[in-house]
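Office hours follow-up: a student asked to see two folded examples consecutively, so here they are.
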Amino acid sequence: MLVAYVKRETAYMKRQGRMNRLALYLLVVTSILGVCLAHAAEDVPKNIILFIGDGMGVSQVTAGKITKGTLNLERFKVVGLLTTFAHNALVTDSAAAGTALATGFKTVNGAISVSPDGRPIKTIVEYAEAAEKSTGIAVSCSVTHATPACFLAHVDNRSKDALIAEHIASSGIDVLFGGGAAWFLPMSAKGSKRQDEKNLATHMAKRMKVIGSVNEFQSLNDVDAVAGFFAEEQPGGVSERKPSLPELTRRAIIILSKNKNGFFLMVEGSQIDWGGHAKDMNYIISEMVDFDNAVGVGLDFAKQNPQTLVVATADHETSGFAIHDGSVDVRKVTTVGHTSGGHTAAMVPVFAYGPGSSAFAGIADNTSIGRIIIGYLQKANEKPPED
């Protein structure tokens, strides 16, 4: 079809006396390129890894680059920007933004994957499960915190950790790494934050291995499903947090990639945001670098497994962070500013690599992340017609 088209157009243009050899060459190249791009747009990834840097704006990325020299984020081939407003406010919280990323729909601040009037909205994880893919969550916060909760629960208020934990325990998640053990233990257990005797950890242990220490994590053998709780509530910062986010990411990928149908994994660098709330430059940068190291793990896997789409973005920007001085030569940021201790309405970056990545280029809304990924999962779930 392409050859016939080029021949037909070439003959026509020659008859008109308006084509030289260079123009003919450009026509052929452009036509072939157009076909290649069309095919690229139709690529459906087998594996999808979504990295979310909570509170990560362009300045946070810049600070990470100054400090680290070269970021893994620089390995992405596609870059864009996202607006982040909530259904009811210009400045979003992590719940509304997480819902947009996880479902492709806007909701009100505080809501976890429910519509503004409280109706549950199907999440990426649920679509991935329908496509018979393995699913995983790895975060540097409690797994009941707003962003991870948006992928696993449907609750009207992000503060309902106990209820969110119940939703998580009843979900089909295959890998769950983070903090928040206190919400999965009965009230009578030491350290529990529950107000009832529900033992969600025991419930989860019926279908997956449940661990609660670094030693257990390091000695994990060949498992198909695991929940790892590494803090009663919130894990500490980079220097005291073990296992590290890159280690959690690597282990999650090893487990999930055993599924012949592929997998979906969400990894959150949760505490970039907390550094912004604290107006703590060093906190922001250390968490940014840790997050970037985790992104590198995902990209390394994608390089060896070309059917893998990797997307990295943020739920919102935190603190109006700005860099005022420092040195590229000595890799140090010395002077910064913050417009507030809260979130801002600034657009956030999105990076994409692998099959289907071109759809993330340019300026869009954060709901586009959920809608594009869900679209790929729905396409993967399409069954070929029977004979």
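And the second, which I mentioned at the end of office hours:
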Amino acid sequence: MRAGQDGRSHGSDVLAIERLFLSFGGVQALADVSFAVREGSITAVIGPNGAGKTSLLNCVAGFYRPQRGRIAFGGEDITRVPPDRRPALGLARTFQNIALFEGMTVLDNVKLGAHAHLKTNVFQALAYSPAARREERRLREEVEREVLDFLEIEHLRRRKVGSLAYGLQKRVELARALAMRPRLLLLDEPIAGMTEEETEDMARFILDIQEQRGVTVVLIEHDMGVVMDLCDRVVVLSFGEKIAEGTPAEVQANADVVAAYLGRSHA
């Protein structure tokens, strides 16, 4: 049993979702969704296809703006904060479909994630001043030491991303998000499409990110074995509404959750 699954509490709430409503035309994507994420935890958001899971992550990341409701991160209201400002606050994410620059190297892709924390101004960067060069060198060393080594892809740093296998590309995307030095990491189906070995590796890295780096993780995942093994809390969505929340064991035994996945007659 993992720490956090035995009833021991984590820190204070790092993320609070309060009565979130999101619609696209006449389609209700999220309806009155509320829950909180404890700092230092791993929380899964699960549900059938079309339940609103990715829409929820897009609201937290700032790509969607809800019509009603509030999103608080670290106690601050970020509901109206533009998405490009959220990484500097400590929020990073990966995507359901890999969003990397295939013609660039692994190192250059991952370095892009750390640019949210660069201190040189645009004129220094354009002129590639001594200050910009020093910061660029420190950034590269930090990425190689703290991120590529951590995710065991340092030997691939000069490879073009497009030449890598799918599982390694997913790891590079995780590395780019980790280079943002997040306090909260949003993972949209980080294990989808992976082999059994790749799944085990990714699950291990997610645990290490939480346990060794103290990063809070919110993930969307369809592999219930991974969810039950990794997560402290599980939030279940169905047709845009939250139908259950609790520990993995509590959610697994919830009749509404079984009905949402299998249909009422099977439940």
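Two things to take away from it. The CA atoms of residues 115 and 180 lie 8 Å apart. The chain has two domains: 1-90+182-267, 102-179.
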